[in-house]
Design brief:
Number of domains: 2
Order of helices and strands: HHHHHHH
Largest sheet: none
Number of strands: 0
Strand content: under 5%
Number of helices: 7
Distance between the termini: 58 Å
Helix content: over 70%
Structural class: mainly alpha
């Protein structure tokens, strides 16, 4: 039980930290990109890079990579964007695997507690036989039931937390893809930036 409580508390802290990180990474990409493109049309590339550096999140990072490689042609701009995107996605997904692992391991820890509880019950039966009363078995049965319930609660919470974070990361990645396409279109002249 203590192991399950410790795992649950650690996963709650991890979830809250990751939730804050992903929330901070999400910006209004469309508005940000419009502002950057307005600055770039004035040929003020240094200001655009500076704004990207001051803006948190992966969208600003990939736009910055595109601006820094603007004179190298569409293929090189795309490669720079891809390199930046890989780094940013890795940052977003960092420390998500412990939540998934805890969601899978918690029921097993609960089952282990159940087995120990049942061992305790059978040990009590053997020790008190032939005059075993229900009260003698209650401790082991409570242990078995409580550890099973705790394992399932921790697993469910970790699974929900993982899925919430994965969905939020997917939203940020989608913003990154749109921003990458739009900034590439801006530099190659092959399309308009969103909202124009």
């Amino acid at each position: 039980m203590w192991l399950l409580f410790a795992a649950g508390a650690a996963m709650l802290v991890l979830f809250l930290e990751r939730l804050f990180h992903v929330h901070r990474a999400r910006i209004k990409a469309e508005d940000f990109l419009k502002g950057i493109c307005t600055i770039l049309r004035r040929k003020n590339h240094e200001e655009a890079v500076s704004i990207c550096e001051e803006t948190p999140g992966p969208v600003a990072s990939i736009v910055r990579a595109a601006i820094l490689n603007r004179d190298r042609g569409p293929d090189e701009i795309r490669r720079a964007i891809d390199r930046s995107a890989v780094t940013e996605i890795a940052r977003l997904e960092r420390r998500l695997s412990p939540l998934s692992t805890a969601a899978q391991a918690a029921p097993l820890l609960g089952l282990l507690g159940t087995v120990f509880g049942l061992i305790r019950v059978f040990f009590t039966i053997q020790e008190k036989a032939p005059l075993v009363q229900a009260g003698n078995l209650a401790d082991g049965l409570w242990q078995a039931l409580l550890t099973t319930a705790a394992g399932l609660v921790v697993a469910i919470m970790c699974h929900l937390a993982y899925n919430i974070l994965a969905a939020k990361v997917d939203d940020v990645v989608l913003d990154m893809e749109r921003a990458a396409d739009d900034i590439l279109a801006f530099f190659t002249g092959s399309g308009a930036v969103t909202g124009e």
